[in-house]
Amino acid sequence: EKNIVEVKNLKKYFPIKSGVLQRTTGYVRAVDGVSFSIKKGQTFGLVGESGCGKTTIGRSILRLTEPTSGEININGVDIMKVKKKDLRPLRPKMQMIFQDPFSSLDPRMPVGEIIGEAVKEHNLVPKSEYRDYVLSIMKDCGLRPYYIDRYPHEFSGGQRQRICIARALALNPDVIIADEPVSALDVSIQAQIINLMKDLQEKRKLTYLFISHDLSVVEHISDVVGVMYLGTMMENGPKESIFKNPLHPYTQALFSAVPIADPDVKMNRILLQGDIPSPSNPPSGCKFHTRCSKCMDICKTEVPTLQEYEPGHCVACHLYNKKKTENK
Ligand code: SF4
């Protein structure tokens, strides 16, 4: 399958302004040179603690936040080269689902209009077929036909998230970026929404970037997983190999903090020392070195690059570069 999303060396630095004159005194490096790709029909799960830059990546790909630099290619379109005013016709192809289904729906609009508004705006179906089209999308998302004239406040959190999914789906997108789409929902409802997303993906060959801090959710839905720390991708690869054999000391610490269902995986709890450093003044060399129990001298000065360690499984850590050289 071809890559639908290709991100290369993406950076987003937010200026820090201070003083009366609001001079820029520094930058928060929210995303600091991140590269990855997503194949058609696959889910890329992006994990990491809050503040690691995963939401900024999602928003930058859609240019809801203007990236500082880098390359973003979505289904053959070089997104960074498109002028802001020319983004509008591309919007249906790149949809986002947000964490909070309560605030992302207009309370004054009936469900049918919420789902169909952008369909109308972009003339995606003829007027005469419009209502049937909305009804068919609602059916696919498990929403009953008579909901079409009801208002968001009449629905539960899970149903509202179904409405948000239907709104995205109605535009027939190439890629859906889902930012913590189930974290505001009860655990029992989370599974229903995840399963709905998986079903729709199978039927329509959808491509997802799934952003979450919840590892069990990510394990359930992803094909490929990327682990972020302080704006940097520390490790990525096929889900199975990331969960069975996490290589990066940060990934190991992150994973050891949650119970993993697989009895074959034995992991000792690794406690992370200290706090996450400030992204405006990240540590030199490996950004994780201030908290890493395996830190070596080289880690403090040299930035480890993301390198393939086993097929498809890449890690940015000097431990593995060293092993590679020793083996030679
Ligand atoms: Fe730890 Fe060094 Fe690897 Fe960074 S590069 S994770 S400090 S061992």
UniProtKB/TrEMBL annotation:
GO molecular function: ATP binding; ATP hydrolysis activity
InterPro entries membership: AAA+_ATPase, ABC_transp_ATP-bind, ABC_transporter-like_ATP-bd, ABC_transporter-like_CS, Oligopep_ABC_C, P-loop_NTPase
Any GO BP: peptide transport
Annotated keywords: ATP-binding, Nucleotide-binding, Transport
PROSITE patterns named among the record's database cross-references: ABC_TRANSPORTER_1 (PS00211), ABC_TRANSPORTER_2 (PS50893)
This protein's record includes keyword ATP-binding: yes
Domain of life where this protein originates: Bacteria
Domain ABC transporter: 5-255
PANTHER family found in the cross-reference section: ABC TRANSPORTER, ATP-BINDING PROTEIN, TRANSPORT ATP-BINDING PROTEIN
Protein name: Dipeptide ABC transporter ATP-binding protein
Species assigned in the record: Velocimicrobium porci
